[in-house]
Amino acid sequence: QGHESEGSSIVSLLEVIESDLSKGITEITTTEDAAVAAHYLQTMQNKVEKKMKEQDIKYKVKEAAELDKQVAETKSDLEGVQNELSAVLSYLAMLEKQCIAKPESYEERSARRQAEIVGLREALKILEEETALLQRNAHGRKLRGAGKK
After folding, report:
1. What is the rounded distance in angstroms from the CA atom of residue 117 to the CA atom of residue 110?
2. What is the Cα–Cα distance from 22 to 16, expressed in whole angstroms?
């Protein structure tokens, strides 16, 4: 009986161990299955996200190329407009020089008037000399009918 009770206690101990191991294996299997499912789900999500990002890259590269083209065209347009503006501004400056009367400074007016005065004095001097010369010649000559009176 002693051996039987020892044997039955060992068997019951082994049954408890087997039950604990079965329970542990079930928990581990369940946890592992859940991890596999989560990994599979994450892998699928990563694949979908990767495809979306690849498409985004494709569209953004295309958009960047279009924007680069627009920038080049805009720069070309800007250069043309700037050349045209430069030509118009230089023409405007030329017209302003020709058309807009600029007032003379006091010094310029004074110098111009002094030159006029000097010229007028010379002309007066010449006229006075000619008048004096004509008067001298006129005293020596008599008019045609003046001597018959």
Report:
1. 10
2. 10
**What Rg, from alpha-carbon coordinates, does the chain have?**
61
Cα–Cα dist 15/68, whole Å: 77
DSSP state of 100: S
* Residue 141, pLDDT score: 57
Instruction: Provide the token pair at 50.
Output: 């990767």
- Fill in the DSSP letter of residue 102: P
Average pLDDT, the chain: 88
| CA separation for the pair 5, 56 (Å, rounded) | 75
Question: How far, in Å, CA of 127 to CA of 132, rounded?
Answer: 8
Instruction: Name residue 146's amino acid.
Output: A
pTM of structure: 0.41
Q: Report the alpha-carbon distance of residue 126 to residue 65 in Å, rounded.
A: 86
Residue, of 9 and 33, whose pLDDT is higher: 33
- What span, in angstroms and rounded, lies between the C-alpha atoms of 93 and 54? 57
